[in-house]
Amino acid sequence: RTLTLDPGAMLLGGFALGVAPALLEGVAAIAAAAPFRQMATPGGRRMSVAMTNCGAAGWVTDAAGYRYATADPLSGRPWPAMPPAFRDLARRAATAAGFAGFDPDACLVNLYRPGARMAPHQDIDERDMGEPIVSVSLGLSATFLWGGAARGDPKRRLRIDHGDVLVWGGPARRTFHGIAPLAAGTQPDTGETRINLTFRRAL
Ligand code: MD3
Ligand code: FE
Question: Among residues of the chain, what percentage have pLDDT more than 70?
């Protein structure tokens, strides 16, 4: 199913199903070089989602704030390169959603275990907000929450499943969004976890 959630926001149901095994192999290789870690918010709280990155830049948070960094703070080394299968999928999804020409330089990899959540927020650390964001869901299903351009706007709930891709751009780019606490379960490809790949043009 392909569904327009809002102008500029599209759900491409199952778009990544065929390449999911290749994406998960990529995640394993990335995590071997740059392990998943639970980063601290600027306010000093540990995030429930464990994160790593691949690409020229990676999203990080610590006491100094939210930002993109070209090196992994844990190792001081550059983030692992973005696997070609990641970039290809992101570009095909962006094109299918009307954003031809997207070329991500950052992929944030989010690992959710049962109970992990992401509080509603905007993604505004990227330099050019004219570029879309492509998000790929793998493993356990989750409840995606999305509101509007203001924090207080009512939230809608959408179940997102293994292989689903969401693309946000244009007028939807500043939408507040989050993930409800992950329900426990088991999924053949990812076990007791959900993995989300979020492709951005950061620099
Ligand atoms: C709407 N990740 O990493 S993906 C994030 O499933 C993030 O891990 C969630 O929000 C996850 O920042 C949600 C869907 C998503 C991603 C980016 C967006 C929705 C978005 C950017 C703008 C508007
Ligand atoms: Fe986000």
Answer: 100
Cβ 168 under 6 angstroms from ligand 1: yes
Q: State mean pLDDT over 135-164.
A: 98
Instruction: Give CA separation, 157 vs 26, 143, 183, 194, in Å.
Output: 29, 6, 15, 17
Pocket test for ligand 1, best of 36, 102, 123 (most atoms within 8 A of CB): 123
What is the position in ligand 1's atom list of the atom closest to the CA of 51?
Answer: 3
Q: How many domains does the chain have?
A: 1
- Asked if the ipTM is above 0.85, the reply is yes
Identity of residue 100: A
**Which domain, by its residues, includes 93?**
2-200
Q: What is the mean pLDDT of the chain?
A: 98
Token pair of 109 as six digits: 């990899």
pLDDT digits (tens, 9 = 90+) for 157-189: 999 999 999 999 999 999 999 999 999 999 999
The domain that contains 194 carries what CATH number?
Answer: 2.60.120.590
On the 0-12 / 13-18 / 19+ scale of CB atoms within 10 A, 65 is exposed
Q: Is 173 in the pocket of ligand 1 (CB under 6 A)?
A: yes
Q: Is 59 in the pocket of ligand 1 (CB under 6 A)?
A: no
**pTM of the full structure:** 0.98
- Name the closest-CA residue to atom 5, ligand 1: 198
